[in-house]
Amino acid sequence: MAELIKMPRLSDTMEEGTVASWLKKVGDKVEEGDILAEIETDKATMEFESFYEGTLLYIGVQVGETTNVDDPLAIIGEPNEDYTSLLSPSDDPKKVEEVKKEDTIELNKDDSKKVENVSNNNNSVPDGVTVVTMPRLSDTMEEGTVATWLKKVGDKVEEGDILAEIETDKATMEFESFQSGNLLYIGLKEGESAKVDDLLAIIGPKGVEVSHLVDNFSMSNEVPVINETKLEEVKVEESKPSVENKPIEVIKVEPKSDKRIFISPLAKKLAKEKNININTISGSGENGRIIKIDIENYQVGIPTSVVLDLTESFEEVNHSQMRKVIAKRLGQSKFSAPHYYLSVEFDMTNAISFRNQYNSIPDTKVSFNDIIVKAASMALIDSPKVNSQWFEDRIRYNKHVHIGVAVGVDDGLIVPVLKFANQQKLSDIGTMVKDFAQKARSKKLTPQEMEGSTFTISNLGMFDIESFTSIINPPNTAILSVGSIIEKPVVKNGNIVVGNTMKLTLACDHRVVDGLTGAKFLQSLRGYVENPVTMLV
Question: Catalytic one among 42, 155, 319, 510?
Answer without folding.
Answer: 510
